[in-house]
Every structure is written in structure tokens, then in C-alpha cells.
Amino acid sequence: MLLKIAVLAGDGIGPEVTDQAVQVLETVASRFQHQLQVSKYAVGGAGLQAENDPLPAQTLQGCLAAQAVLLGAVGSPAFDHVPGPLRPEAGLLRLRRELGVFANLRPAVCFPSLEDCSPLRPENIRGTDIMIVRELLGGLYFGQPRSTQGEAGQREAVDTMRYSEPEIERIARVAFELARGRRRKVTSIDKANVLDCSRLWREVTVRVAKDYPEVQLNHMYVDSAAMILVARPADFDVLLTENMFGDILSDQAGGLIGSLGLLASASVGGRVALYEPVHGSAPDIAGKGIANPLGTILSTAMLLRHSFHLEKEAAAIESAVAAVLQAGNRTRDLVASGQPFLSTSEMGGKVREALARKI
Ligand code: IPM
Ligand code: MG
User: Fold this and answer.
1) Confidence at residue 92, expressed as pLDDT on a 0 to 100 scale
2) For residue 357, what pLDDT band results from cuts at 50, 70 and 90?
3) Which of 27, 161, 219, 341 has its CA 20 to 30 A from that of 145?
4) Is 221 labeled as catalytic in the residue annotation?
5) Other C-beta atoms within 10 Å of 348: how many?
6) Is residue 114 one of the residues assigned to a domain?
7) What is the pTM of this model?
8) What atom in ligand 1 is closest to the CA of residue 281?
9) Among candidates 123, 28, 12, 127, which has minimal Cα distance to 71?
10) pLDDT, tens digit, for every residue of 205-226?
11) Which candidate in 80, 116, 211, 223 is catalytic?
12) Which domain CATH number covers 198?
């Protein structure tokens, strides 16, 4: 099969981790006899530097012409002071919107060999296997109006949270469909005791649930969900939520399973799907060769599964990662300070070796 993939390395540790992930894809392609065609484009701060645009037209065209997009990370302190639409992050948001990827899937699974990396006691993190379904194109991230106005010292800023019934319904359906193939539990997170958006959210999810009688739906306020996620993470199966709550809770889930560096994501439902690790550009460790590439490598497994229906290939990457961790290999984020660890490329190399050995 020909695999046409647009790779947007982006900023900070983005280039280091995507480089390892692309090499893993090359190994998979040669083992399973696929032809990999990678085209690289600039995004975020890299796009600003090259084209003065965090999402250059060429990048968007390249993504739309590809069968899947793999992105590293965006965000750079060099551009912290530029106006909103010219921030690196604005490029990523525009890309998500242009691709139409409204459903962001963020699995948070506790690897048995990493139980000790969690800040929780092993018996509390054990068995955690959550699929976060985050709405990606609505809410506070995109709602209009938004502005900052007024005289210095007296300025006012406005952001708008807005959701329509069809927007809620389509993301709820994604969550219920996924739950069917899992433990058949959807926990919908909202703030229905305060927000109109959340009350509408709850109403629509209840309505959608009627089409999935085999799936159990329960609701939780986001504050309570943040607490239960720390107290009993293994209770969650599919966690359905709006854009901003999903952004926050998915980082929390990363912390719980040992490192945000392990989390992969798939953004689907649009013209071309987008795959990216959940972590950001981590400017503090960029260029040092110590970032964890596993979140991006696991994102390539999601890419092969969702965009190409290559289940065997996806599973091969996932078992290679599990085997490498089981064998005790760790990047810096997974060890106590002072303990030895592997570099980004050494970790990527271990995964490729495991893949080649057909573990
Ligand atoms: C994420 C990131 C992005 C988001 C930023 C970089 C815009 O935090 O993918 O979780 O908030 O969606
Ligand atoms: Mg985030």
C-alpha cells in the first residue's frame, strides 16, 4: 500500500520526536511491504519563521493532498508576544479547523511496566485504560466574539463558549461508537450546574444515548471529574468532553500514567486525519535529545489504524513500545533524577529494533 503522509515537525521538541516516529514508520513500511511517501512542511513558529504565517498555504495544501498528517508540536517562547492570530498555536487551530477534525481521541493507558512511574500508588493506577474523546472545533477555542478592548489599565477581554446541538451530537456519537467496542461506559464531563453550553451538552448526550442502549452513560461535573480522575482513574472507560475541559483533563491523565510524553492522539472526522502527541513543544528541553518520542511513535500506530486500517501494523508498533518499556528502557521523564536514561534517538532505536525482531 502507498502511504502518503504529510509531516509537520513544528517547534521545540517537535522535530526530534517526529524524526523518530518517521523512522519507526519506515521500519514498519519495510517489514510489512508498504511504500512510505513523506512530505515535510512547516507549521507554528517554524511556519512563522519561513513564511510569516503559522500555517503557510503550502502546508495546508500539502496536508489536504496527503492521506494523513503527523504533527510534532507547536509553540515557541520567541513568538509569545505576537498578536493572537500570528501565534504558533493559531496555526494548529486553523489546521484542525481546515481539516475539519472535530473528534480528538486521546487514549491514556497505564503500561504495567510503568506503574511505578505514576505519582499514584500502583494499586490505584493499575488497570487504567481511558479513551478521552475531546471535542476539537468548538467551545472557547473558536467561539465568536472574542476580543481585547479598551484603554490600558481598563481593558476587557472576551472569549465565547458556544456549542450547537449538531456539534454536540456528532462528538457524542463518536464516544458512544467507541464505547461499544470497549467496556461500554461513557462518562460525559460538563459544568451543567453553571454553564448553558453544558446544560445543552447534557441534554444532547442523553438523547444520543438512546441510540446506544448497550452503553451506560453517566454525567460528571468537570471539577468532580478532576478529583475522581486522580482518586480512581481505572473507573473511567470513555470520557467525553468539550474542547477546553478535554485539553485540561488529558494533560492530567498524562501525569497520572507517568508522563505526558507517552500520550498519543488522533484527530478525526474531517477530510484528512491529524495525529499528534498530546504534549507540547517543551522549549525547556528542546534540542537536548532527551524528549520522550513514544507519544509520537504511538500516534503513528493510531495513524496506521485509523487512516489506513492497517491493524496488524498498528498493533506491531504498540507491542514494540510495550516490550521496550517492559525491558526497562526509559527516557528522562520516566526516571527519578540521577537515574540513567536513554536519549530520544536511543529510545526510537529500541522501538525499531523490537519491530524488526517482530516482538
Ligand atoms: C493540545 C495543545 C493545544 C490545545 C495547543 C498547543 C493549542 O495544548 O493539543 O492539547 O490547546 O489544543
Ligand atoms: Mg493541551
Assistant:
1) 98
2) confident
3) 219
4) no
5) 26
6) no
7) 0.97
8) 6
9) 12
10) 999 999 999 999 999 999 999 9
11) 223
12) 3.40.718.10
